[in-house]
Amino acid sequence: MSKDFVSVLDTFESPATERDYTIRITMPEFTCLCPLTGQPDFAEFQLEYIPDQLCVELKSLKLYMGSFRDTAAFHEAITNQILTNLVALTAPRFMRLSADWNVRGGIYTTVVVEHRKAAWEAASRVDLP
């Protein structure tokens, strides 16, 4: 199931390496195949990350996510593989990938995976009145 992400995904330099900032990307049209039945599976992915030196380029991310269309994999495996590849590509301070899988057999599945760079600590939340 491992996709050749290096030939598809591209990056660009973070414009503000001196601070933590969050990038949120929603990908509502993900498809792959059920490894047991061969039927299509559909999901909406949400990617949230705090870049360090590199950001993922959006068109290349779209092409990469589309490359799973004919891939047979369990929800948990494919979500973890995508996070692993994105972390290997961008080395972010923090990254979270959530996959909301459409109903199959009356069951909805959500898979959430995270990565934290060693020694990185999130800033405290600021609540304004």
Chain-wise SSE layout:
Blueprint: E1 11-13, E2 23-33, E3 40-50, E4 54-56, H1 58-66, H2 75-90, E5 94-104, E6 107-116
Antiparallel strand pairs: 1-4, 2-3, 3-5, 5-6
What do these coordinates show?
There is one protein chain. The chain has a single domain (20-114), classed as GTP cyclohydrolase I, C-terminal domain/NADPH-dependent 7-cyano-7-deazaguanine reductase, N-terminal domain (GTP Cyclohydrolase I, domain 2). The protein has a 4-stranded antiparallel β-sheet with strand order 2-3-5-6, with helices on one face. A two-stranded antiparallel sheet has the order 1-4. It is built from 2 helices and 6 strands. The chain starts with 10 loop residues before the first strand and ends in a 13-residue tail after the last strand. The model has no long low-confidence stretch (mean pLDDT 93). It is α+β, with helices and mostly antiparallel strands. It has helices at 58-66, 75-90; strands at 11-13, 23-33, 40-50, 54-56, 94-104, 107-116. It is 19% helix and 38% strand. A hairpin with a 6-residue loop joins strand 2 (23-33) and strand 3 (40-50). The radius of gyration is 16 Å and the shape is globular.
How would you summarize this macromolecular structure in one to three sentences?
Helices cover 19% and strands 38% of the residues. It has 129 residues and is α+β, with helices and mostly antiparallel strands. It has a single domain, classed as GTP cyclohydrolase I, C-terminal domain/NADPH-dependent 7-cyano-7-deazaguanine reductase, N-terminal domain (GTP Cyclohydrolase I, domain 2), CATH 3.30.1130.
